Amino acid sequence: MRGIAVLAICCALGSAVVAAGSSASALARCKAPQLKLKAGLQGATQSLLGTVLVANRSARACALPVAPRRVTLVIGTQVLPALTVRMSPGPPGTPTRRVPAHGRVTVGVQWRNWCGAPRGNVRLRIGLTIYNSETQRVSAGVVRTPVCVDRKHSSRVAVSRFLA
């Protein structure tokens, strides 16, 4: 009976030590309000290509998913119907799933095949969906929409992993 009591105490203490260690090393997920974006896109072959800088405004590091779930493109008040896909290969950099306190990471973005309206030079805003919430949308400035290559296919926005 005494052996069972000692075993129970050892198991309880071991669980407490493991739980304390894991909570110290686990990061909270990044939340949209603590992140600030800065976007820059420019013309590339039949597309717009660039990066979005993701800055952590808080005093605590936070965890990111592998890549944004969705890239939202907005012209005026119109959210553009564009399919988000993974960029392969992505821009050079070290993949990361962590944003340090007051630190920043980048993500590559490439927009292709825009057959909708408006066309030509437009003021574009971009937002990222990280986990289940969208960041505040920011201006990417005046850009020229990508060319319409094939009306049968959706407009696509390729997005890279988060890069340190």
Structure in words:
The chain has 164 residues and is mostly beta strands. It is 15% helix and 45% strand. It has a five-stranded mixed sheet, with no helix packed on it. Strands 4, 5, 9, 10 and 11 form a five-stranded antiparallel sheet that branches. The longest helix is centred in the first third of the chain and has 24 residues, at 2-25. The radius of gyration is 22 Å and the shape is elongated. The termini are far apart.
Portion of residues in beta strands equals over 45%
Distance N to C terminus: 55 Å
Please summarize the sheet with the most strands.
Answer: 5 strands, mixed
Average pLDDT score: 86
Instruction: Spell out the helices and strands N to C.
Output: HEEEEEEEEEEEE
Report low-confidence residues grouped into runs of 5 or more: 4-25
Q: Tell me what the CATH architecture is.
A: Sandwich
Overall 3D shape: elongated
| Oligomeric category | single chain
Please work out how many helical segments DSSP would assign.
1
